[in-house]
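Appendix C reproduces, verbatim, an entry submitted by the partner laboratory led by Prof. M.T., so that reviewers can inspect both the input and the predicted structure.
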Amino acid sequence: MRAIWTGSIAFGLVNVPVKVYSATESHDLSMHQVHNKDGGRIRYERHCEICGESVDYANIDRAYDDGDNRVIITKDDFQALPADHSDDIDVLQFVPNDQIDPIMLEKAYFLEPTSKTPKSYLLLHQTLEDTDKTAIVKITLRTRTRLAILRTCGKLLMIQTLRWDDEIREVDFKGIHSEAKITKKEREMSAQLVESYAEDFTPEEFSDDYQVELRKLIDTKLEAGESVDLEEAFPKEEEEETEGDVVDLMEALRKSVDHARSTKQSGSKKSGKRKAG
C-alpha cells in the first residue's frame, strides 16, 4: 500500500507527523468494451468537432458554458488559481461526534504515524476517544483543498473528506406533510418488527452478490468457452407469491413480524445443525 500524502496534523503548537493512505478500494472486476461481431477491442479517440482532427490530451483545455456564453479555461488559468500546497492537516475545530451528518461524508483515508516515537499520534487518538469529539480539518489533496473530519477508527486515526454545505440539496416532499395519523398500536407493532430484525452489524457476513456471480460467469466461460448454458449455470429462483397490495397497515405489520420471527428461527436451527456437524 502506497502513501498518497505525507505531512503533519497541526493544532495549536502540536504537530503529529503522518502519512495518508486510501482506506478503501473497489472490488469490481475490470472489464473493457469489445465489438459483439468479432470481439475486437473498442478504442476511443478525442476528435475536434470543428477541424475533425484527433487531439492529444496535452492539447486539450476546458470550457464552461452557462447556456448563453462560453469561456475557455486554459492550463495557465488553472495554474494562476490560489491553490494551497500546505503539508499540514490544519485542525479548525473540535465538535461532538453526533454533529457530523453521514450525508456529508465522502472518501476515507487511514493515517499512519511517521515519528519514531508516535506519542503525539497516540495522545490525539486517546483524546478524541475520551472527549467523544471529532476534529474538523482542512487538507490539500492533489492541489484541491478539502474540508474533512479527523476521527478514530479502531487503533488508528483516519480522515474522511466532506461535501461542502452548498452541495447538499434541500428538499421538502409533500408526503411528509400528510394528515395521516399513526396509532399507538401501529407504533408498537412497528417497533416489534424492528426488534425482530435486530442484530449486531457484522459487515463480513455480507457480500456483493452481483460481483460474485459475475466472477462465476467469467470462470465458467473460461473453462467451457462461449457454449455455456446460462439457464443451467444460473437457474432463476422461484419468486414467492404475493397477495397483492396490502391495504391494512396493521395486517401488513403483523405478517411481517411473523415472517421475520419464523425466518430467524429457521436460520438459528440451520446454524445449530452446522455447528453440531
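Strands lie at 5-11, 14-22, 62-65, 70-73, 88-96, 105-113, 133-141, 144-153, 156-162. Additional entries are available on request from the coordinating office.
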